[in-house]
Amino acid sequence: MRVALLGCGVVGSQVARLLVEQSSDLASRVGTPLELVGIAVRDAAAPRPELPASVDRALLTQDAPGLVQRADIVIEVMGGIEPARSLLLAAISAGAAVVTANKALLAEDGPTLYKAADAAGVDIYFEAAVAGAIPIVRPVRESLAGDHVRRVLGIVNGTTNYVLDQMATTGAGLEEAVAQAQELGYAEADPTADVEGYDAAAKAAILASLAFHTRVTLEDVAREGITSVTSEDVAWATQTGHVIKLLAIAEQTIDGVSARVHPALVPATHPLAGVRGSFNAVFVEADAAGELMFYGRGAGGAPTASAVLGDVVSAARHRVLGGKGPEESTYAALPVLPPSAAITRYQVRLAVDDRPGVLAQVAQVLAAQGVSIEAVRQPSVTDAEHEAEPGGLAHLVITTHTAPESALAATVTAIRALEPVREITSVLRVEGA
Q: How sure is the predictor about 391, in pLDDT bands with cuts at 50, 70 and 90?
């Protein structure tokens, strides 16, 4: 079975290593040997210290279009939209099965690839596109195919989880924690895709599409990164029994499907709250199966290569023994809801004049928007960290019950306009309760 590899970076080099070093085991699992016939790169002469000595450098080629034409299985780990999309479509047209880790491409234009693969009668697998080594695509797409998934909560970006964890455990500021992540190789020199939530949003689109049998694209995902999260927010989260996580959330309501990415307060008792460092986890809520959590390393060369090779084995076995992997499932075709329709809870911190009747005014605003209060906390003067400030200024922390995002946003706007309210210092959503 001829295997072509597109890309030879951190993940690609590990994929090549596993194909070569585990060739005997892979042949036994597939039923025929897997031969790596080429590795497409931009510059075959460039130094590649990440490429293991076990991989023959003669496999490197700059002729990616020619390479895909002579392969039975094409693995794409180069990333980006083009030329990845064109190369995968060419591979499918030539009758090759494809395995990709390209979350951005799948979130933006996955249906084009799925349609082409279905028409050609070949497999397309993408386990590594969502959470590295964590098996989540296959469980949602196949293992839970007989169930009704209601909600998916995911920590699907290791960089942001590491940053927020460092802020919570060491007191580091956002910039300091990001710099630490870069030093450890968890974050790129330009961390924008991670800290602004683009990476997680692509994964949320994929998970929502799989879970709810509805096409959800990157444009459908409401996105908010962690750049506005402060050390004070993190400290307050601890005070109220929460931790802050960047969550990818996909859920089905009676009105349709919503998908969003944003920082959220997660109760310290929730399983996701204990996900530390650069690890990822996906929490699935289904009617029959109940609550399931998938946990592990969400990035890195070897972990991601593990997921890629699992897909390669599945695709190769189908070619040897017959059969075909699952196709895109969009039978539900549910409406994709706007961000304003999402149902969530807010925790709002505000600085107010320290005088009677202020809380009543705030409560009246919430009632007018149809939002009910779950809890109110006013730090006393004996609270060393959050005591009332000089000049008659006090702090209120208000946690709401669930309500539509639109009502909660309107509530915050109305509270900000109240005369006794000096400042709204933080607005964070609360998830996982």
A: low
